From TrEMBL, chain A:
One Pfam family matching this protein: TPR_TNPO3_IPO13_3rd
Classification via InterPro entries: ARM-like, ARM-type_fold, Importin_beta-like_NTR, TPR_TNPO3_IPO13_3rd
Family stated for the protein in its record: Belongs to the importin beta family.
Organism: Cercophora scortea
Subcellular location as annotated: Nucleus
Lineage, top ranks: Eukaryota, Fungi, Dikarya, Ascomycota, Pezizomycotina
This protein's name: Armadillo-type protein
Cellular component terms (Gene Ontology): cytoplasm; nucleus
Keyword check for GTP-binding: no
Any single biological process term in GO: protein import into nucleus
UniProt cross-references to SUPFAM superfamilies, sorted A to Z: ARM repeat
KW Cell inner membrane (keyword) present: no
UniProtKB/TrEMBL annotation, chain B:
Source species of the chain: Cercophora scortea
Full protein name: Transcription initiation factor IIA subunit 2
Family the UniProt entry places it in: Belongs to the TFIIA subunit 2 family.
Subcellular location field: Nucleus
Gene Ontology BP terms: transcription initiation at RNA polymerase II promoter
Quaternary state and interactors: TFIIA is a heterodimer composed of the large TOA1 and the small TOA2 subunits.
InterPro entries: TFIIA_a-hlx (IPR009083), TFIIA_b-brl (IPR009088), TFIIA_gsu (IPR003194), TFIIA_gsu_C (IPR015871), TFIIA_gsu_N (IPR015872)
One Pfam match: TFIIA_gamma_N
Domain Transcription initiation factor IIA gamma subunit N-terminal: 8-54
Keyword vocabulary terms for this entry: Nucleus, Transcription, Transcription regulation
Domain Transcription initiation factor IIA gamma subunit C-terminal as annotated: residue spans: 65-108
Any one GO CC term of the record: transcription factor TFIIA complex
């Protein structure tokens, strides 16, 4: 940008300032700003301000005030006390001048800001700034600060001020507290400023008392509004002052009664309500008991009754809910007293608060007060719970009355959570719909709290409401009752009294109602009903008599476009939970699944859930041969899908989209968009894979079996009964992977299928023999997509091997290790695939921790050498996750020990060679190369090095004084001190802090900004 | 909830978002793209925004059950150690089981603001 020359005359400066406030191109404005800022910052800035302030143009006067602020902030240190006092007098005189020469308000306000800036820089020269300013306003001229000794008392001074001067004084007091409040009150630099401000509190009190009773003219309300804002700013400041001194709070408290009077003025009501709500919510201790009594009386007045009625029946959109929020803020501040007192006034107040949950209009969109009111009642319930369980000795005479209020609250909530008619809901926007849903969740939360107090009676209450609503066919009420009952599912145990209440619902025509697809039953009710069944799946375990009804209902809904997903999920939950009582029905379930499949196109996700459900039932069949028989029946269906997908890929001509089996490869939501045949084939395969994965999950045992890690005597699972089927599965998986070798998703789902068996302890069709799994891995070339997922699965496989018999583990590891390292070797740089790098290192780390001999017997030897240097390179790199894995690996390596003397010698030799390199890498990181977040992780190998390797000190010393050390900010003495501390701490936790401090020292003071 | 002019806890700086933000700020300072004062302001803003977002915007919920192993209340901070915990997500889609959970909770209003 081209710089403009500095102006040579005042007239030129003025013309630049005028141009600054005119519409101009951004580049022109930037140039003008640049030249004016240069002027402001120059030594002539003070004179410039003085010359500009006498202009008749408001913009120029404003700029003059701004220049004073800039100069004070930049050059105040260069002023002597006398010069500063002279400056103060000048600014005050300019403020006074602005009051009489017709300057705009923004000029006067800016000059007031300049005065505040002066106060912040010279608090010792202007301790009673407000009183002095008021005095100058009163006498109409600027006087030295010392003349304040002859001034009248502040209340008399403010009594003399006319409306204009009073307004300016209030602006001054507001800006004063706001600007000082922006400075750090804990910084020594500003301690005097804050102390000085607090000394002004009595004068503020006098000023605001007058501001609340201004001269009676047309602008009186405006002054009172300014006074309220100023009062609020001072209270907020007082709240932040640690252990607010009486000097500040007492004078402010004297103003509360004045401010309460502002409620009566309709124009001030909003601002006053906001002030009181804010202080009650955030600083309730500011008010004294007398203030609370005044507020309590106010709430009991006719005036309050009128506002309350308006809140309940008025339009929240137009009139707001300030009064409601004020009541709630008061309630929140006095919640314990309101609960514990049993007097009429408290009861009346609580009654009104519960009434806030019954305001006109639908939740959130029309009724804005419900959600904050519910928040209050949640607090109320929590308070009741606290008192009930902590004051056991005391009589709880408050409880009946509180319960009565709670009953009203629950009833009001039940009414409010009822869905509106579909045509009303259709008109809502997305925010209103989401808000309605969230408010229902809030109600559910509160009901769970109430359950702690009321227990079974709450369940009974909603069960009865359900029955009553069904009787009168009020579907919205039925839905609300079912929703409320469902919200309590997490609280309800398997106690008989709870089951009794739930049976009232399930023994009613509940299932018949929900099964009516063509009739008056709203979709919402059916949705909520399905969720309700799912939530109480444990109930069905105890009451199998209702299970067929529930499952029939759910299966009937599977093909519904809206209910399909929820019903499939409910089927899965219910079948998993009740698997042992459904084993006899496994065949029927499979036939049901086939029927659904052959009908309409079933959603893929829903199908997976149904398969999961059926598989979990099959898993519970105790007879092995029967289990295998049913398993094969289900598997055969999926097997055909696999074959079809492979066949279609090979022969695209066989595609027939009228056949539901081929339609499975087309997105059901977009049947008109037909993808390429190859894509359809892939989708059919993927869908079958995901179903097989669900089968594998469903077949997982839910019993908790004991795993004895040290035992070697556990027999190898004799999964001979599954051998054939396992061979078939692995052959199919291999064929699908070969056919769709480009698909990463195929690899991922295959990995999931293998994973499902890793955690199993008993034989099963997906608990593949270890050599089968090992074969699967080692056959995967570097070109396989999602290689990172494969490696991560291999890591899980190691964990599973460690849980099993130990005999063959080394053989499997010895086959897997070269495969893993060859994949790492194929990477051009470690960063080219961070997932492969990370999982590869984790794999070797896990292997080394239990079978170090496998690592050191790796052939060819150069593979091992490659890996060590690779992981050091990763430790030096910038990728956080591989770096963490490398830090873990080296932590393990440094502490590696073996009882075999030969192996121990190999380890020691390796450490002798690698130790200096590890030390160098760690020191480079700690010397500033590492990111801050990596320091704790990197401290681990450092601590291990210090405690486990006798030569650690010399290795670290060499690294610290090596020419490649990344920082020039630390001296040799600091490095030596760091080393001494690290060694002295002997690997204790304090090392992390020392590392952090050294890293900071190496990076420099610019990095100490984090607390 | 703390108000506009009040301080916010800096405990969320230790979460993954805060840690990543600090690393990013370090990188910017290292490259002399910003000065530390700005970084400090960004972190202060982060403290405020995280607290507000968690309080106002987060609507997801979960419930959990477990065995309370240890609890303490020290310096206005509650700490709970819970073992064998099962988390149930809001939509009931799935559960997550963990061996141990530590919950550290502070009052929404800081000690100096009550």
């Amino acid at each position: 940008m081209e710089h403009l020359p500095l102006p040579s005359s005042l007239a030129e400066v003025e013309s630049l300032i005028r141009a600054l406030y005119q519409p101009n191109a951004p580049a022109t404005i930037a140039q003008i700003q640049e030249v004016l800022q240069r002027l402001q910052k120059s030594p002539q800035g003070w004179q410039l301000a003085q010359s500009l302030i006498v202009s008749r143009d408001d913009n120029i006067k404003f700029y003059a005030a701004l220049t004073v602020i800039v100069k004070l902030n930049r050059d105040s240190a260069s002023l002597t006390d006398d010069e500063a006092k002279e400056l103060l007098q000048n600014i005050v005189s300019w403020v006074l001048q602005s009051l009489v020469d017709g300057s705009s308000a923004f000029v006067t306000k800016k000059l007031c800001s300049a005065l505040i800036t002066f106060f912040i820089h010279f608090p010792h020269l202007w301790p009673l700034c407000l009183r002095h300013f008021l005095y100058c306003l009163d006498i109409g001229r600027s006087t030295p600060v010392e003349s304040l000794d002859d001034a009248l008392q502040t209340n008399l001074i403010v009594g003399n001020l006319d409306r204009r001067k009073l307004t300016v004084a209030i602006w001054f007091a507001t800006t004063l507290v706001e600007e000082v409040g922006k400075t750090d009150m804990n910084s020594p630099k500003y301690v005097q400023v804050h102390e000085g401000l607090i000394k002004n509190a009595p004068d503020v009190s006098c000023l605001l008392a007058r501001g609340f009773s201004p001269p009676q003219d047309s602008t009186g309300t405006k002054t009172q509004g300014d006074t309220l804002s100023c009062f609020q700013a001072w209270i907020l400041y007082a709240q932040r002052v640690p252990s607010s001194s009486d000097l500040l709070v007492r004078p402010l408290r004297e103003l509360v009664d004045y401010s309460i009077n502002c409620f009566a003025d309709e124009e001030l009501f909003q601002a006053t309500a906001e002030l009181f709500s804010d202080v009650l919510t955030n600083y309730s201790s500011f008010f004294t008991e007398a203030h609370y009594n005044s507020l309590s009386s106010l709430f009991d007045s006719d005036w309050a009754a009128q506002h309350y009625e308006q809140t309940i029946h008025g339009s929240h959109q137009e009139d707001g809910i300030s009064f409601g929020l004020l009541m709630l803020a008061y309630g929140d501040a006095k919640v314990h007293e309101l609960m514990a007192r049993i007097d009429d006034r408290s009861s009346r107040f609580l009654q009104r608060l519960s009434g806030l949950l019954a305001a006109d209009g639908y939740l959130v969109g029309e009724d804005h007060v419900f959600v904050p009111a519910l928040e209050f009642w949640s607090t109320f319930v929590e308070t009741m719970i606290d008192s009930t369980y902590s004051d056991e000795e005391q009589t709880q005479n408050w409880r009946p009355l509180a319960d009565q209020h709670l009953k009203t609250v629950i009833m009001n909530c039940w009414r409010k959570v009822q869905w509106p008619p579909a045509e009303v809901f259709a008109e809502w926007d997305s925010a209103e719909r989401a808000g309605f849903g969230d408010a229902r969740k809030d109600v559910a939360d509160m009901l769970q709290s109430v359950f702690t107090l009321n227990g079974v009676s709450l369940l009974s209450f909603f069960a009865d409401l359900f029955l009553q609503s069904v009787a009168v066919q009020s579907w919205a009420e039925v839905e609300a009752s079912v929703f409320c009952l469902g919200s309590l599912s997490d609280c309800v145990s398997d106690n008989a009294e709870f089951d009794f209440e739930l049976s009232k619902v399930f023994a009613s025509p509940f299932f018949e109602l929900l099964g009516e697809t063509h009739g008056p039953i709203p979709l919402r009710l059916r949705q909520t009903g399905l969720k309700f069944i799912e939530r109480y799946c444990e109930y069905f375990e105890r009451h199998g008599e209702y299970l067929p009804h529930a499952l029939n209902l759910l299966f009937a809904a599977v093909n519904d476009p809206v209910l399909g997903g929820p019903s499939a999920r409910a089927i899965s939950t219910l079948c998993s939970s009740c698997r042992s009582i459904l084993t006899g029905e496994a065949g029927a379930f499979i036939r049901q699944y086939q029927t659904i499949r052959s009908g309409q196109a079933l959603d893929s996700w829903a199908e997976e859930k149904i398969i999961l459900a059926i598989a979990s039932i099959i898993q519970a069949i105790t007879d092995d041969s029967r289990r295998l028989e049913v398993f094969e029946e289900l598997y055969a269906i999926l097997r055909k899908d696999f074959e079809r997908s492979v066949q279609l890929k090979a022969q695209p001509g066989i595609l027939n989209l009228t056949d539901p089996d081929f339609l499975r490869g087309v997105e059901p939501s977009k049947p008109q968009v037909v993808p390429a045949v190859e894509e359809i084939a892939l989708q059919i395969a993927l869908r079958a894979l995901r179903c097989l994965s669900s089968m594998a999950k469903g077949m997982q045992d839910v019993k908790e079996n004991i795993v004895d890690l040290d035992s070697d005597s556990r027999p190898v699972p004799t999964n001979s009964s599954f051998t054939d089927i396992q061979s078939d599965i692995t052959r199919l998986l291999a064929e699908v992977q070969r056919t769709f070798s480009y698909s990463g998703e195929v690899v991922e789902v295959i990995c999931n299928i293998y994973r499902a068996g890793f955690s199993e302890t008993d034989p099963g069709p997906f608990v593949f023999p270890a050599d089968v799994v090992t074969d699967f891995f080692v056959q995967q070339p570097f070109e396989t997509p999602r290689l990172g997922t494969l490696l991560s699965t291999a890591c899980s496989f190691i964990g599973s091997l460690y849980r099993g018999p130990k005999t063959f583990v080394p053989n499997h590891l010895a086959r897997l290790l070269p495969w893993v390292i060859s994949l790492l070797q194929a990477l051009q740089v470690p960063e080219s695939d961070t997932e492969v790098t990370q999982n590869g290192i984790i794999f070797v780390d896990r292997l080394m921790s239990r079978y170090p001999e496998v690592l050191f017997q790796l052939q060819p030897q150069n593979m091992l050498e490659f890996f060590f240097l690779f992981s050091l390179k990763v430790l030096d790199g910038k990728e956080p996750l591989p770096k963490n894995a490398a830090a873990d690996f080296w932590s393990g390596f440094i502490t590696l020990k073996s009882e075999d003397p030969g192996l121990q010698e190999t380890i020691s030799n390796a450490m002798g060679h690698l130790g200096p390199l590890v030390a160098q890498s760690l020191v480079q990181n700690i010397g500033g190369n590492a990111a801050r977040s990596e320091l704790d992780k990197l401290s681990d190998p450092l601590k291990k090095l210090v405690t486990n390797q006798v030569r650690a000190q010399s290795w670290l010393e060499q690294a610290l004084f090596h020419e490649s050390f990344p920082s020039k900010q630390v001296t040799p003495q600091e490095k030596t001190l760091f080393l001494r501390k690290i060694v002295g701490l002997r690997g204790s936790r304090a090392t992390n802090q020392v590392v952090r401090e050294f890293w900071l020292a190496c990076r420099g003071s610019n990095f100490t900004y984090v607390s | 909830m703390a108000t506009n002019n009040t301080n916010f806890y800096d405990l969320y700086r230790h979460g993954s978002l805060g840690v990543s933000l600090t690393d990013a700020l370090d990188d910017l300072i290292g490259a002399e793209r910003i000065d530390p004062q700005l970084a400090m302001k960004v972190l202060t803003q982060f403290d405020r925004i995280v607290a507000e977002a968690l309080s106002e915007k987060v609507k997801a919920r979960l419930t959990f059950k477990g065995s309370l192993d240890t609890y303490r209340f020290c310096d206005e901070v509650w700490t709970f150690l819970i073992k064998n915990v099962t988390f149930k997500m809001d939509n009931g889609a799935h559960t997550v089981q963990v061996d141990k959970v530590k919950i550290v909770s502070c009052s929404a209003k800081r000690g100096d603001e009550k």
